[in-house]
Every structure is written in C-alpha cells, then in structure tokens.
Amino acid sequence: MKAVFFPHILPRRCQFSDSVVLALLLMCAVIPSFAQQIKSIENSKHNLSASGPGAIRASSEQEVCIFCHTPHNASPIQPAWNRNNPVSAYIVYSSQSMDAVAGQPTGSSKLCLSCHDGTIAVGSVLSRDQEIMMSGGTHALPAGKSNLGTDLSDDHPISFRYDSALAAKDVKLKDPGQLPQQVKLDKRGEMQCTSCHDAHDDANGAFLVMNNANSELCASCHRIAETTIASHANCNSCHVAHSSPSGPYLLTGNNLSDTCLKCHSGQPGLAQGTGVASDLNKLSRHDNPPPRGVLLGDASTYVSCNDCHEPHTMRSQTAVAPAISPKLGKVSGVNSAGVVVVAAQYQYEVCFKCHETASVNTRAISRQIVQTNPRLEFAPSAVSYHPVEAPGKNTNVPSLRPPLTTASIIYCTDCHASDTSKAAGSSGANGPHGSNSAPLLIARYEAADFTSESATAYALCYTCHERSSILSDESFPFHKKHVVDSRTPCSICHDGHGVSSTQGSVLTNAHLINFDITAVTPLGGKLEYRSLGANHGSCTLTCHGQAHNNTPY
C-alpha cells in the first residue's frame, strides 16, 4: 500500500523535520488512520503538552505525541512506543461471578498502565535523557480516577481470553462474534483496555470507543436487557468500571446494599415511596450487609439485597400468591422439597433459601413442639398451616375477612413486611425490609401473657380475621373468655406458621394448636389438645392456675 501523508493536518506541535516526517510516513503505512488520530488528541486530556486542556500538562514541552510515541530510540513495541513498561506485579480482578481468569496485564493494557498505575513519571520517556517536567512539579498521575494503582481488583478485568467457550460458560456474556466493530479484542483474542478505550479519541468522553449513555458499550459484551426498570437497565446506575468502592462486582457503593440505597433510600429527589433505608434502621430488619468484596448473602452470617432481588431481571408487574413477584427478578430459591432452584417460581421459595436453617430461625416463643424449619411447617402435608403454599385444610373459618376465603393462598409478606408500608396502610416501601414489630411483622402481634385485648394489640391477626367474629365466638365458643376476660394472647395457643406432620397429628394439633409452654403447663404430666370435630375439642393442661382435665367445648 502506498503511503499518503499530509503533514499539514498534524497539530503544529507535532510537525517535525524531514527525517521525522519520513519515519512517520512509515508509521502511516501501517496505521492509515494515524493522522486523524493525531488530530483528534489535541483537545483531549491526553494532550500532555504545555498547551493541553487538562490539569496535568507539561511546564514547557510543546510536542503532543512525545509522551507516548517517538520515531527514534523507541522501545521494540509498536507503535513506536516511547515509554518503559511497568514491571509491578498487579493484584488482578477476581469475583464469584466471573468465569474467566484474569492474568497479569499484557499487550496494550500494559502500555496504558505505564502512566495509569502511577509507578512511572508521566514525563519519563525514552527519547529524552531528562524527564519532561510537568506543571506544578507533577511526576506520577495524582490519586484519583486516572491513577488506578497496582491493585486492579476494583477495576474492570483485562487481559483475559474472551472467546466462544467463555460465552458458553457464562450465559450473561455475548459471543465475541457479536461484538460491534468499535469493540476490538487483541490478536490473542484477549480483552484489553483498548477494547473499551481509544487513547486518541475522546469524542465519547472518557476516551470510550463508543457512546455509553444508555449502556451501549456495556451491552456490547453483557446481556443486560431483561429488566423493564429503566434505572436498572442503565449499568452506570449501579456499576463503575474503575476504582469501585466494592472491589469485585464494580458497584458504586461499598457493597450491594449501599449501592441499592443510593436510589432506594426514599430521600427527596430519589425513588419516591421506596424508603428502604428507614426500614433498615428499625427494631427488626433484614440488614446485615456483607463486607467489601462479598456479593452473595450467607444465611448464617450476611443478608444482602440480592438474596431476594436479582436486579438485572426485575420487572414492574404484579403477581398473585403464591407466584413470585416480577419485582424480585429471576432470583434463586429453595423449593418445597428442599431443592435449590436457579429461578424461584414462588415467593416462599425465596424465603426458604435462608429460613430453613436453624441459625436464622430462633423463635421468640417457647413452643411445645419445636420446629426451626418453616418449609416443613408450611408444607401441604403438614397437620395445619397458614396457607402459604396451598389453601388451608380447615374449610370452616367464619372469621376470614373478604376477599379472603378458605381457598385463598397468602404470601409470607402478608405477615412479614414493613409496618409503615403501603400494604400496611401507610406510604413506605412494601416488602420485608424492616419493622418495629418483631419478628419483622407488618402489624403488632403481642405475645406476652396477660395482654389486654385491643384492635391494635392483635392487629396482625385482625388483618385477616374479623375482630368482631373472633370476639363473638363464631369459630371457638371460648375465644372471648380467653382473649378478653383472661387476657390470653392468640400466640399462647396458636403457632403462626403451622405444625409439621413429622411432629404433630391431626388429633392433637389441628387449628395451628401448639402451646406456648411458658404460659401453659402439663396437668398430671399431660399437655394436650384433642380435636373432636367441627367446633368441638378438649384440653388437658394448666393455664393461669386453672386446671383443664380433659375439659370439653
């Protein structure tokens, strides 16, 4: 190819002697676009000459290209490289979500780091015996976004092979054959700094190879289009490519919870009606975020937003119990059989992911039958249960408030949710983020013996059960006597979740009967309720000093 060279298009400070022009002719034979690249760099921060527009510039040096290139005395690195390469051993990126293995920086990334890791002076070039002095006495790049340091664990991974095998392993990555022409891998098929950045062209800002205002650059490699929530579809809302506070996962906050709360705090100007931050300061809450670098919550140690939400697949539609809300996204769970599922179909599967382990199920009430696994309590095979997985077994529940019927199914979050949420009749965020009524209840549920009955004391129960019906003894002939006259809380007799079939029986544990043994004690060594048919039964126990010896009703 015949080289064509137009010296008049060079910035004035890059016009050289005839011998230099000859050398540049040879360079242009290899890089036809070199002249245009030279032209575009002049008004960018990569013009480090004295006339450069950035804060970092030479005190008197007028040449523009010299900080990276030289026609003479260059290193054996193309194109005519004018800098020493850094020799530092870098801490490279690594995370639980990355299938590729990032090695030490190679190729063009190593060239970029000769300035951007801060170990080599900006003005240290091979073609000069003396370091080019920078304005203000600057040597290395100052601390900040442009100085990445030698710890690259908080920067987008580089120098890894991006091929079809990797894309097949990670379904969230596109096949490299789909990359747009602007996004290029190096000759080894590796992702490098230059895959996203063009050092000579700052037209898109941050020297990006293409516009990323709507995540176009991110979407070149990553599949991110499943969510219908606009801010979640914009990678920049939650992620930063360099110097991430979180380290791995490149989040804008120290961890996932901090990142989410940047929008979901409920503060003025942010997502209104989503005051999750205030819920996370309440008495009972889902809030124990993992430390920097840990993404996945651990049921025994950490709770993170992505234990319940998968932000990249969240949608704004609604659902009907027991189906999972699209607002949770395609989040993992544990099904009714105790098997881990990649994408939960039902809300209770998300809850079971953490709440089938004893470490997170310490019960506030001492029960006659102790069960720490709610998955067994709610199973359709259980003796009795609140209808979370299937309609309840009792077809005669006259106290139910419309539109509830004995065929209804409810969510865990109908009971466990914020006490200031819209679902609770207030204006806060829905969901089990936090409540001042423990254990994370949507309304008050007093469990202390000798509590005076009121609409507020048992507001949780009265959310679904008509108070007037309960106190009129429509379900049980002695409800009023127990709850009002004897000041016996609902929880003394009833277990709010259910009674597993592996521990109870239909004869002794129907109607969620599982006594609080701090208030109810055995009579003659026997503590028992017996179901004798519709609205009939008997008790053998001692309660409030009263002996019930097979007492019928």
Short description:
This protein has helices at residues 18-30, 34-41, 107-116, 164-169, 193-196, 218-221, 230-233, 256-261, 276-279, 347-352, 374-377, 459-464, 467-471, 479-485, 506-509; strands spanning 160-161, 190-191, 284-285, 333-334, 340-341, 384-385, 434-435, 498-499, 520-521, 528-531, 537-543, 546-552.
Q: What do these coordinates show?
A:
This protein has 553 residues and is of the alpha+beta class. It has a domain at 360-370 and 394-553. The chain contains 15 helices and 12 strands. The protein has helices at 18-30, 34-41, 107-116, 164-169, 193-196, 218-221, 230-233, 256-261, 276-279, 347-352, 374-377, 459-464, 467-471, 479-485, 506-509, and strands at residues 160-161, 190-191, 284-285, 333-334, 340-341, 384-385, 434-435, 498-499, 520-521, 528-531, 537-543, 546-552. The strands form 5 sheets. Strands 9, 10, 11 and 12 form a 4-stranded antiparallel beta sheet that branches. The chain has a two-stranded antiparallel sheet with strand order 1-2. A two-stranded antiparallel sheet has the order 3-7. The longest helix has 13 residues, at 18-30. The radius of gyration is 33 Å and the shape is elongated. Mean pLDDT is 88; it is low at 1-39 and 269-273.
Shape: elongated
Task: Report on the biggest sheet.
Answer: 4 strands, antiparallel
Distance between the termini: 103 Å
- Count of alpha/pi helices: 15
